[in-house]
Amino acid sequence: MYVDLGNALDAEPRLTREALDRLDERVADAHDRIARGREHADHGYAALNLPDTVDPDAIRASVADFDDPAAVLTVGIGGSALGAATLAEALGADLAHYILDNVDPAHVRSLLDSLPLADTVVHVVSRSGTTAETLANFLVVREAMDRAGVDWTDRTLVTTGEDGNLRRLADRHDLPALDVPAGVPGRFSALSTVALPVAALGGADLDELLAGARAEADRLSGSLFDAPAYAYGAACYALERRGAGVNAVMPYAESLEFFAEWFAQLWAESLGKDAVGQTPARALGATDQHSQLQLYRAGPRDKLVTLVRPRERPDVPIPETDLDGLSYLGGGSLAALLDAEFEATEASLAAARCPNIRIEVDRIDERGVGELLYGMEAACVCYGELAGVETFTQPAVEWGKRAARGLLGGGDFPEAEAVGEKRRLLVE
Ligand SMILES: O=P(O)(O)OC[C@H]1O[C@](O)(CO)[C@@H](O)[C@@H]1O
């Protein structure tokens, strides 16, 4: 992974090179803490050991019986779905992969009606094994398979924790089940049993993926000027401290659209604590040049833009044309056009003094994606260390879960009563 901080300096909010040099001393301390946390496989830090601790053979074996499925359905939410969606979109060009990560009845019904259930593999994933949306969706999927005369126990792979409803269900029906990695929060678990089964079903080379991640791990060091992941994490932190409360992540590749979603959970759930944190905004290049760029260039000075692209990509030629005014396009290629758009947008942000960071990988292949995911995870951990927040917990999400459970008769929760006390000012 290549990280270019040039356009992050001396913009608005203003981060100077001198400030970055001073921050580097704190990055050295952060790296020491991270290295100690990895050494002891402490909760959260263990995620950065996955390239060495995950067992790709066991994952390949877990999907070996599902030969060449027509479709793969991941039933999970948050970190239990976004990693798989990112890997399938970036690496599984031939894989028909779907995720059920919401409980919208209309969507669930239409998706299940459209799937070839007899030839679909279901990967149900929940670290806690208790997430309502995932368990409810799985019960619905199971019934749909029953109705279609499909033996769902033959089509289902489970990834979950040591206990919980999903583990009990897997044990009761003797389903093939993988363990979530110990000490790894969901949003940091893409390079594990949580998402790699889908990558394997899509034919991805897991060893290359992990090699890319390992290469990024090997670059972690006591200086942000030697470690691309820390360079990104430290610069984002420093810019947030100076007012860049929004980080618009804009990959210039359709196959990285889910990556922006995955990044949004990683950044928001890890760093949004104690009244600090940087709000991730998903964007896509070149598409959102025509929807968001106006705001990034001329709106409030509260943003950083992260531009992501591969250095090499497949191409499509643009046919010659004799249409006036189009000769600059004719005979060229879409890749050249997209790269020109990338560089022009980058320069336009700099001209508007909007800080932006360029992130590149050589290609969107196993190695490149391994580098990118691991790099972003290490960047997030570094940012969390510098900000002094609990990077690996997400206590604020529990209130709503208790309220919903209480509303559905799943127990007595004061939060459910608070729902009834909603203030009203209805305009209709
Ligand atoms: O894997 P689980 O336990 O079902 O949780 C799913 C997601 O829900 C959260 O716990 C937030 O509610 C995320 O941290 C997690 O990725």
From TrEMBL:
Enzyme class: isomerase
GO molecular function: carbohydrate derivative binding; glucose-6-phosphate isomerase activity; monosaccharide binding
One GO term describing the cellular component: cytosol
Catalytic activity: alpha-D-glucose 6-phosphate = beta-D-fructose 6-phosphate
GO biological process, one term: glycolytic process
SUPFAM superfamilies: SIS domain
Keyword Isomerase in annotation: yes
Keywords: Cytoplasm, Gluconeogenesis, Glycolysis, Isomerase
Entry superkingdom: Archaea
Location of the protein in the cell: Cytoplasm
PROSITE patterns reported for this sequence: P_GLUCOSE_ISOMERASE_1, P_GLUCOSE_ISOMERASE_3, SIS
Domain SIS: 62-209
EC numbers, comma separated: 5.3.1.9
Associated pathway: Carbohydrate degradation; glycolysis; D-glyceraldehyde 3-phosphate and glycerone phosphate from D-glucose: step 2/4; Carbohydrate biosynthesis; gluconeogenesis
Active-site annotation: 269 (proton donor), 290, 401
PANTHER family in the cross-refs: GLUCOSE-6-PHOSPHATE ISOMERASE
Family: Belongs to the GPI family.
Function as written in the Swiss-Prot or TrEMBL entry: Catalyzes the reversible isomerization of glucose-6-phosphate to fructose-6-phosphate.
Protein name: Probable glucose-6-phosphate isomerase
Species: Haloplanus rubicundus
Lineage: Archaea, Methanobacteriati, Methanobacteriota, Stenosarchaea group, Halobacteria
Gene designation per UniProt: pgi
